[in-house]
Amino acid sequence: MTIATVVSFGVLILAGVTLISVMYPMLVRSDLVDQADEASRRITTVIDDRRYTGPIPPQDNVSMLQVVDARGRVVAASAAVAGRPPLTSARPGGGDPRVSDRVCQGRGCMVVVGTSNHISAYGPVVVYAAVREPVLLRSSFLPLVLYGSAAALLALMGWAAWYGVGHVLAPVECIRQGLERISAEDLTRRVDVPSTGDEVAELAVTVNDTLSRLEDAVERHRRFVSDASHELRTPIAGLLVRLESGVEERTEADWRAAMDDAQRLSDIVGDLLLMARLDAGVEIGSDRFELGRLVEEEAARRPGRLPVTLDVQPEVYVRGSRLRLARLVANLLSNADRYGDTRVWVSVAARGDEAVVEVSDDGPGIPQEMRERVFERFTRLDRTRSRDTGGSGLGLPIARDIARAHGGDLRIEDGPRTRLVLRLPRD
């Protein structure tokens, strides 16, 4: 800001010096020449057919007027120059009927303009009109006044620029200081939003929105790490206790429980790795396959507690990763099998430009206010999502992430039964 102000100040000073030293005198003299020229031309037209019988009357603000014949004699004059010799010896020439001269006598100077008339009542003559230059124009006091005024004006403009830029940038500095106080340990703080209602205020609002999203992301990351460590600690602890108890004392049931703990630990680690890959935006693939056949294969391959009723529309094609979408369908079937009471229903259909998969069960259902929370990582609903059921709380979050990675979505929709509805773009 300082550099910009100094540069602007220098440019303005240079422009002021040029204006005062060169342009102002030129403009003033040009205006005087125009006045004298206008008066001279008027007199020239008057004497076309008559002579003055007395002094030439002043023309506007021009009072020094003369008519000079070809021999240099003054044949008519205004009262201001009566009895005086010609105002100048300069005469029009080279085919130009007009001549301009600057005459200085003593301390005064004047601008003289002459216009020729070859057919006047006096014969060939030149009509001269003269205008005195202002005293200040030839006085040393004028540059002092002008330079002083220019310096004061430039100083005022410099101060205004400094104050204006500083006033505009002050809220930006407040935003910078506010951001400087925010750390990764405390993302709850926000920058102050100025009441100006301009772009700077919009910047502050955007910064606060970004901080809110960052805080939410960090909080979700911390919660994920905490939940993951808790989920891993439980099967590891159980497995260690069984192993430390001694091999000889273990029954078949104990070994089966140890294997279950190890399998659960392996499943959780696999889910965490898959979620890490999904969060990293790994390429999903571009295979084209029939979605209904994939659902039928997963339903037949996966032994479940409850029978599965299929209603599959043929030739519903999608494009993406067959392995990932198979994992998605397996998670939905596993979820319905775990929480259903008597049966699981699965349907595949084409609806417009979407391929829709519905997986429903007749379990206790999910309350309306909890239908988004079940897609949060490591989230279970009180009774039905108890850890005793063996679920890790990652199945539905992984399923939604896979769906969205393929340009679709997974939601819980209304109905007489618990309905998980997958929508994917048809190919």
Provide structural commentary.
Pfam families: HAMP, HATPase_c, HisKA. This is histidine kinase. There is one protein chain. The protein has 427 residues and is α+β, with helices and mostly antiparallel strands. The protein has seven helices and twelve strands. The strands form three sheets. It has a five-stranded antiparallel beta sheet with strand order 2-1-5-4-3. Strands 7-9-10-12-11 form a five-stranded mixed beta sheet, covered by helices on one side. The chain has a two-stranded antiparallel sheet with strand order 6-8. It starts with a helix and ends with a strand. Residues 383-388 have low confidence and may be disordered.
Question: Could you give a short description of this structure?
Answer:
This protein is an alpha+beta fold and 427 residues long. It has helices spanning 2-46, 141-181, 199-244, 252-279, 291-301, 322-339, 395-405, and strands spanning 64-69, 74-77, 98-105, 108-120, 123-132, 287-290, 308-312, 317-320, 344-351, 354-361, 409-413, 418-425. 47% of the residues lie in helices and 19% in strands.
How many strand elements?
A: 12
**What low-confidence regions span 5 or more consecutive residues with pLDDT below 50?**
383-388
Query: What pattern of helices and strands is seen along the backbone?
Result: HEEEEEHHHEHEEHEEHEE
Approximate helicity band: 40-55%
Which structural class matches the secondary elements? alpha+beta
How many helices? The count is 7
Rg, Å, rounded: 49 Å
InterPro entries: HAMP_dom, HATPase_C_sf, HATPase_dom, His_kinase_dom, HisK_dim/P_dom, HisK_dim/P_sf, Sig_transdc_His_kin-like_C, TCS_sensor_his_kinase
Subcellular location: Cell membrane
Keywords: Kinase, Membrane, Phosphoprotein, Transferase, Transmembrane, Transmembrane helix, Two-component regulatory system
Organism: Nonomuraea composti
